[in-house]
Design brief:
single chain, L,D-transpeptidase catalytic domain-like, Immunoglobulin-like, alpha+beta, Lipoprotein, acyltransferase, elongated
Length: about 425
């Protein structure tokens, strides 16, 4: 009996030993290490390993905007990189074709951004590298796609930045897509003046928004337009992409009054009459609009073709001198060299424009047409009175001054 017990005991020890060996083989097969590695996998030693590894990781934390994989990314704000607890040592932004995008690293090496606005409907890849105070490096990569033209809108504005204009020049914005959420869009636009005037926006339709004060701008002031449209949803799925500030100056106060009945124009500057000019306005069958009109374009010479404004082939003059647009529909105040001298101050003969005596070729500065052109700014006001025609529509050109203040304010969405 004892002998058999001894045998069983030995057998049990042998099985245990075999199990231990088998366990070692399994550990070796699964982890690629031996008994020493198995000992290192204990909770205490693993914590020590993690702690040691953490000491070798850079403290620098890189952040890239937008997030990796973003679509409809802003063309103004995408591609910006910042870092905390370190400094950037390398940033590369490229298009999907590999074309590099130039950018600027801040003086403190804490941020980087593209030098110019990104392109729409373009995929970009960005790679950034930073180093902490211990000299350890960190890396971050991202890719994103900017918003497409079909999913974005812009506003084309008048006047241009850094120009000097007359007191009648409104801020007029024409959007390239219909705007459904007028309140959201108008709320993202501000217009202010150093003259302290109240400025209100008015929607003429779902693509045109104009801003003006109750009365003409105060002369010699500065007007600032801020477009904060980036990311603003103008219509479902269609967002703005503009983020910019524009300044323009208002010059002297020049308002010219055309009296169709007397066939004269009185030019007043800062309240004083500087010149009275004989004119020829629209004939009785094609009268000139009444009302306050703003000079919106100037051409030293231009072609005027009656077919483009509904007059068929009645006229086509290819070198009209000193032409200044007063309406979208084709009203101009311009020089006239083909009419007899007697018509100026003597007869109204035009198809609706206001004509001043001038010379062919626009080369004689002594002629009234040349003088008025050289002494006028975009945004100057030309008032026409005593015509047999109706008052011009406020949205026909930059002529919102022909709308009362209460009605103007009623067209605001905010």
């Amino acid at each position: 009996m004892e002998k058999r017990v001894m045998t069983d005991s030995k057998r049990r020890r042998g099985v245990a030993a075999a199990a231990a060996v088998l366990s070692g083989v399994l550990v070796l097969s699964a982890c690629g290490g031996g008994d020493d590695q198995a000992k290192d996998s204990s909770p205490q030693s693993q914590a020590q390993v993690d702690k040691a590894a953490a000491k070798k990781v850079s403290k620098a934390r890189i952040a890239i905007a937008p997030k990796n994989g973003a679509t409809n990314a802003s063309i103004n704000n995408a591609g910006k990189v910042t870092v905390s607890e370190g400094r950037l040592i390398e940033v590369a932004l490229t298009t999907e074709s590999g074309a590099p995008v130039k950018g600027t690293l801040a003086a403190d090496a804490k941020s980087w951004q593209p030098d110019e606005q990104l392109e729409r409907s373009t995929s970009y890849q960005l790679s950034a590298k930073a180093k902490d105070d211990a000299g350890l490096t960190a890396h971050e990569n991202s890719s994103f796609t900017t918003v497409s033209p079909s999913n974005s809108f812009i506003g084309n504005f008048t006047p241009e930045a850094d120009t000097t204009v007359g007191v009648g020049m409104p801020v007029s914005i024409n959007f390239n897509k219909p705007i459904a959420d007028r309140k959201a869009v108008q709320s993202a636009i501000t217009v202010s003046s150093t003259g302290g005037q109240e400025i209100v926006g008015h929607w003429f339709n779902n693509q045109r928004l104009d801003f003006r004060p109750e009365n003409y701008w105060k002369p010699n002031t500065t007007v600032t337009l801020k477009l904060g449209l980036d990311g603003v949803e103008g219509s479902p799925g269609v967002v703005g992409v503009q983020q910019k500030t524009v300044n323009f100056k208002v010059g002297r106060n020049q308002v010219s009054t055309v009296d169709v009945a007397t066939k004269t124009m009185k030019v007043e500057r800062d309240g004083k009459t500087v010149r009275t000019i004989p004119i020829s306005a629209g004939a009785p069958s094609t009268p000139t609009y009444n009302g306050q009109m703003v000079i919106s374009e100037k051409y030293k010479e231009t072609r005027m073709n009656g077919a483009t404004v509904g007059f068929g082939g009645e006229y086509d003059i290819k070198d009209v001198p000193h032409a200044m647009r007063l309406s979208t529909s084709g009203t101009f105040i311009h020089g006239n060299y083909w009419g007899g001298r007697g018509i100026f101050g003597g007869a109204n003969t035009s198809h609706g424009c206001v004509g001043l005596e001038d010379a062919q070729g626009a080369g004689n500065p002594g002629k009234p047409g040349a003088w008025f052109y050289n002494n006028s700014l975009l945004g100057d006001v030309v008032i026409v009175k005593n015509s047999q025609d109706k008052t011009i529509a406020p949205d026909n050109g930059l002529n919102g001054w022909n709308m009362g203040w209460a009605q103007w304010k009623a067209g605001s969405a905010v």
